[in-house]
Amino acid sequence: MDGKAIAANAILFLLIFGMSATVEWEHFKTQSRNKKGIGTGLLLQFIILPALGFCVIKMLSMDYITGITLLIITSSPGGSYSNWFCSVFNADLALSVTMTAISTILALGMLPLNIFIYSKAASFSSDGVNGLDWQGLGISLVVVVCQSLLAYSFPGNLHQRNFARCPI
Description:
By secondary structure, the protein is mostly helical. The protein has helices at about 5-20, 25-30, 35-60, 65-75, 80-90, 95-120, 125-130, 135-155, 160-165. The chain has nine helices and no strands. The radius of gyration is 17 Å and the shape is globular. Residues about 155-168 have low confidence and may be disordered.
């Protein structure tokens, strides 16, 4: 892994760690039992969004590079920006951070599965899919999972209202 990739992963880690550390463990546990909220998020994240990405690929007859990029984007877990927006607009940050943690863990399996299924359906060659940087993708997912676990175990969390809000 080169210096740029290490720096990018470090920045990703710090960004999500900062947001996750502002959510108290009790709120995380409460939201993890929110079956409607989490279920809706997972349905949209891993079923609807990749299917819509596939529909766009077929409707626009995209080539391999553009199509596989869209498949990766629509199959990847969301999180960083949604957590930030929830923090700025005083939405349910605990639900957003919990959803990020759960979807990122599930993405370790669902992301490759969705890319495999939809790339075959789009008639992309298996050589192209095998040529993806699966290791780099996996490292990014593991970084997000580790930072969430570390942030929730952080002593006393960083539960300060000013830390989680944009200073505007």
